[in-house]
Design a protein that fits this description.
The chain is an alpha/beta fold. The protein has ten helices and eight strands.
Length: 305
């Protein structure tokens, strides 16, 4: 089988059947399977996906017991993917299914492990574009991502890489972070981007903050190293100020007026300690949740899988 197409489904009862039909039409010449993962939708998406799985033997349908989040749903789908290449595509029709061929042809021509899509003109809201920009800046620093690579959700992954990343069983999967742990042989290709067919984006401030924290504290030790370097810098700075104050006091034969210095130093050190404790708390908290057996996802039902 050449392609596994992973679609995380959330409140998409009006678009998911049309998207699946479009994929089957434009990729009729390709041997493929479609893996639908219902991420705890509150509408009739589960029923629609079930009907599609009953109608087509090459459609696998997994329904989760609650909403676990997009990355968790994608990881579930990747665990059931069996083709040589897996493509992750959203359920909102903003990525035309015909562009899947563009990703596939690029991967085959350049022998890439992963191919990301990028756009001339993104049809997202200003808020989502700003959030995507911040995430890309953070991942460039934390994951050594190339600066000119846009980490889009619409991407293709070679099977050997999929087999590596699904070994991660923790509750905080970040697909791009896992990919960059496995490979650096990554390419990109320009595709078209359409306006959302129905409804509105589920990209919220809360989910953006959660994504920031997961990237920051689960996929790189650099924040801790930055904290260590900052602490070292403050220590050297305080030693230097102490030497300067003592030298000035000896030369002028007067005791230095240190009341304001004491209070500023106290506030600065206290703030630094609280920041360090908070960051350590995030690491310890994530480690505790991972070791406590918190599931990545829980399957409610399956069809053809």
């Amino acid at each position: 089988m050449q392609l596994s197409i992973i679609i995380p489904v959330y409140n998409s009862q009006k678009t998911i059947a049309l998207l699946v039909q479009n994929i089957l039409t434009v990729l009729a010449a390709v041997e493929l399977e479609i893996v639908l993962v219902n991420d705890g939708s509150s509408d009739n998406s589960e029923e629609v996906c079930g009907q599609l799985a009953s109608q087509y033997r090459n459609i696998k349908f997994i329904s989760l017991r609650r909403n676990f989040g997009e990355f968790n749903a994608v990881m579930c789908g990747l665990n059931y993917a069996q083709a040589a290449f897996s493509v992750i595509i959203d359920d909102d029709f903003q990525n035309p299914p015909v562009e899947i061929l563009t990703l596939l042809q690029t991967a085959q021509a350049k022998n890439y492990d992963v191919v990301y899509s990028y756009y001339d003109q993104k049809q997202h809201s200003i808020f989502r574009n700003a959030g995507s920009w911040l995430v890309n800046q953070m991942t460039t620093w934390l994951l050594d991502k190339p600066k000119d690579l846009y980490l889009s959700s619409f991407k293709l992954i070679r099977r050997e890489v999929v087999q590596e990343i699904v070994q991660y069983k923790g509750p905080y999967p970040y697909i791009d972070g896992l990919l960059f742990r496995v490979t650096r042989h990554v390419g990109k290709v320009k595709v078209s981007h359409q306006k959302r067919e129905d409804g509105r984006s589920n990209y919220t401030i809360g989910k953006l903050i959660s994504l920031f924290l997961n990237i920051l504290f689960c996929y790189s030790p650099r924040p801790l190293r930055l904290l260590t370097l900052t602490g070292l810098g403050l220590l050297l700075f305080s030693i230097s100020l102490t030497i300067i104050e003592l030298s000035a006091s000896i030369l002028s034969q007067h005791l230095p007026a240190t009341d304001h210095i004491v209070w500023i130093t106290f506030l600065g050190v206290s703030g630094f300690q609280l920041l360090g404790m908070g960051m350590m708390g995030e690491y310890v908290g994530k480690l505790f949740m991972a070791q406590s057996g918190l599931p990545q996802y829980v399957i409610k039902s399956k069809q053809n899988a």
